[in-house]
Amino acid sequence: MRIYLGGHLNFYHPQKETWLEVKLLQPTPLKDVLEASGIPLGEVYLVVIEGELVDMQETIVSDQSEVKLFPPVGGGC
Amino acid sequence: MMYGTTGKILRVDLTTGTWETETLTEEYYRLYPGGKALAGYILLNELPAHTDPFSPENILVMANGLLTGAPVSTATRYTISARSPLTMGYGESEAGGFWGPELKMAGYEAIVVKGKSPEPVYLWIQDGEVELRPAAHLWGLKTAEAQGLIRAELGDEKIRVLQIGPAGENLVRFAGITNDLRHFNGRNGMGAVMGSKNLRAVAVRGSTRYQKMARDSKALLSLGRELAKRVKENPQSWGLQNTGTPGLVEPLNAGGILPTRNFLQGAFENVDELKWEVYERELLTARRSCYACAIRCKREVQVDGVPSVYGGPEYETVGSFGPNCGVSDLHVIAKANELCNAYMLDTISTGMTISFAMECFEHGLLTLEDTGGLDLRFGNAEAMLTMIERIALRQDLGDLLAEGSLRAAEKIGGDAKFFAIQVKGQELPMHEPRGKYNVGMGYAISEIGADHLVVAHDTMLANAEAIPFKNAAPLGITDAQPAQSLNEEKTRQFYVLEKVTSFEKVIGYCFFGPAPRSYILMDEVLESVNAATDWDMSLDELLEIGERATNMARIFNVREGFTRKDDALPERLFTPLQNGALEGEIFPRDEFETALSNLYKLKGWDLETGIPTRKRLQELSLGWAADLLP
Known about the structure:
The structure holds 2 protein chains of 2 kinds.
Chain A: E1 2-5, E2 19-21, E3 28-29, H1 30-36, E4 46-49, E5 52-54, E6 60-61, E7 66-70
Parallel strand pairs in A: 1-7
Antiparallel strand pairs in A: 1-2, 3-6, 4-5, 4-7
Chain B: E1 8-13, E2 18-23, H1 26-31, H2 35-46, E3 60-64, E4 78-83, E5 90-95, H3 99-105, E6 110-114, E7 121-126, E8 129-134, H4 143-154, E9 160-163, H5 166-169, E10 177-179, E11 183-185, H6 190-196, E12 199-205, H7 217-230, H8 235-243, H9 249-254, H10 276-282, E13 284-288, E14 298-303, E15 306-307, H11 315-321, H12 330-343, H13 347-362, H14 381-393, H15 397-401, H16 405-412, H17 416-419, E16 422-423, E17 426-427, H18 437-445, H19 467-470, H20 488-507, H21 522-532, H22 539-559, H23 589-603, H24 614-619, H25 623-626
Parallel strand pairs in B: 1-6, 7-12
Antiparallel strand pairs in B: 1-2, 3-4, 3-6, 4-5, 7-8, 9-10, 9-12, 10-11, 13-14, 14-15, 16-17
């Protein structure tokens, strides 16, 4: 599956890249995928699949899934 | 000996062309250690109520924070303050860059400017030596040309130039002030006040480093090195370093809180054209920083294929000229940014005043005749660029819009008042309160009108497992609250967080430095203050400094006739968002009024009038200010 690390979440990519590829052998809870990938659940504020916000705790993903993650952000100059 | 400060204020009378130096006492400075607090004290004590903002009697204060110029990441900020011609209340705007540290190295904490020069002048300060120099040859020039001439005639390319541009000269009510062409006291029309005094610029050069003023310079340097190293270890500060603020566009859009088309919508259909990846590919030429800052969030860009001398658009600018005006071309937005910085306009109020005019045009309240033939519909990028210049030069419709959206709406009449998205006369920044309720509270209660830098934003503190939330624990924030809530605990958190942001504006830290927004822990903020001084200050004393500063600003506004009814939000926020992840969401009016009352109780302010009680003022060592109240 492909995970888009929006905002500053690519901080958690080993090479600080925006897309993370993960191989899934079977449908898996998203939170398990993120934990296994070293992405702290507490740093993920929004999860978007096919343009819709979804609940991270209840989402099951497969190897064909594409998920966008965004962190909490606030304040600019 | 007083540590951590030059202990000097430069007082300039432009009417007589004279100046003198005032020495600060420690008893006084510990209560008002710079920035917002020092400026507030001077204005309350020396500026009579109801002074016309454009009269010679208005006072312009430029005040460094206690730590401005310290070798510690993000301690670069200074405040500029006066009665605002935009809000007619307490005016204030902070900026970073290099000018504040240079002023301190030149021997001064602050400059207090009174009067009006008979001819255009600029102020030149070098290591305690002061000179007023003619500036008629600079009048009317764009900021880059003026800076080049000043540096050339003084023979030093390293001189730091703070200045207004043609917009300030023309008294545009949201004209700003820049230093080094890239750092901005954008808000509240401080540039127009400076223009009204015929003061084009303040050039400074100094050689006494902060380490010479600090009590324990070794400890300060050690902390500075530690913070420089750690900036890459925190996701928030790393994110600011990696993308700068333009990286906020996409996450805010995903959350449905990207202000779009004058706050009608919360998501922009062409957001993919404004993402950081596009900015990086199409615009970015280099990264820069403020003085001694390890975050380095500033961006350099190309405009019209040439590297711009004016820096790149921040998130607020991408937002205000992008989705907010329905424009999806980053090159146009970069051009808009360059025009604003050349004429020296606040990009937030300029974008918002143009989006106001666009909505008026779409509803037939402004016609082609009014706009001088411009098709001022949302999305017309060329018309937007033309309007920026017309506002700066007060040409055609630009002359009306130069008054700000509230005054323009009153003149246009009809429903125009519903399209002026402002608080106390100042236009909203690019953050959507319908998804971040405490941001809305901040807009309402801020003494300078709508301001996004009042508290850490709700989303940062909504998850108990998030790093920003964990770093807020020393502030007593241990119970995570939803972003869309105004319950009592949320309001209590607002009360604490506002004090933090306020003391940052006093001691000179950037909003992007300390936790919870970023990575410098509260213990380290205290460590820096106590290494600079011999005050052995506690967190409670620091928080009290913040609260004292906001109360002085509040009293300033009370004297001008502001009451609870001015702590209001634009009607638009009580109507449903038209699209995006929060489509249909409103800002809850009843909960807002209850939360405002709860906040007043915490602040010790009268529930009916919003006036600080004498008891609370005395607790804050502001008994003297209670006597100024009506």
